């Protein structure tokens, strides 16, 4: 079952002067269609990347050796943080222009296009967190409804406060996972470190959610709704009925349905279906096409009717599940 799968770290590195090889590497580990164009001396192009994938996060150090420009279109599946280790980076995203350097990280929401002016002097730490993972973490930490995508700030400070600690944690994790004998390479420890990276980012990024409800916040959820949500997240593949969820919550069916519409914005079973779809999408996005099939992943998340599943998947993500699996390979 999906909940029993232990994510193992996968370490991949590349050094090349071939632009197409660099593009292919970035497509595989980050986004489907990045455009990378040298604007400096093409003869100095020296792509170096050292990247570790660990479940819902992808962490790596990346540099290009010469000045480049990068365009990423239609970012939808993940949140991204870039932290220059040397030099500086200019980014444009959703109207925000950020000059990132060793004192300030840049943050991208899964909405809209990204443009980067990336000097050859800039080698950076790149952290990608799957959309559902960060949203579930912030949702759970606040115990209230959050909007998706999260209205995060475009940057955060690295000199003082949680930003400095979070980056130190990420760098330590990357160094540990790159070695074969580090403690973090053990599956149970690796999963805990991954969770620390996600939860640490949720506490580091700027957002409008706080102690008092704000304009973008949803209402605090009653305990009955929280009980049903906890049950669904614990066993998302289980074939729950509304009546079973109402029993878990300790209320009647109609009361639970009304509470979900008010505090979650959808019915309990709609929420469960979305949770499962997000889980399938995450698994397909990192699966080996030669070792996994769409039907196996769908069944592991509780989908028993593949035709209806495929239609719901396309409606949520805009592509067929087989396309997600194939593009990952």
UniProtKB/TrEMBL annotation:
- Annotated ranges, domain HTH araC/xylS-type: 226-327
Indicate yes or no for the key word Ubl conjugation. Answer: no
State the superkingdom: Bacteria
Query: Per UniProt, which keywords does this protein have?
Result: DNA-binding, Transcription, Transcription regulation
**Pfam families xref list:** AraC_binding_2, HTH_18
Alphabetized GO MF terms:
DNA-binding transcription factor activity; sequence-specific DNA binding
The answer to keyword Transcription regulation applying to this record is yes
Which Gene3D superfamilies does this entry report, sorted A to Z?
Answer: Homeodomain-like (1.10.10.60)
> This protein is called what?
AraC family transcriptional regulator
Which species is listed as the source?
A: Actinoplanes siamensis
Which classification does the entry list for the species?
Bacteria, Bacillati, Actinomycetota, Actinomycetes, Micromonosporales
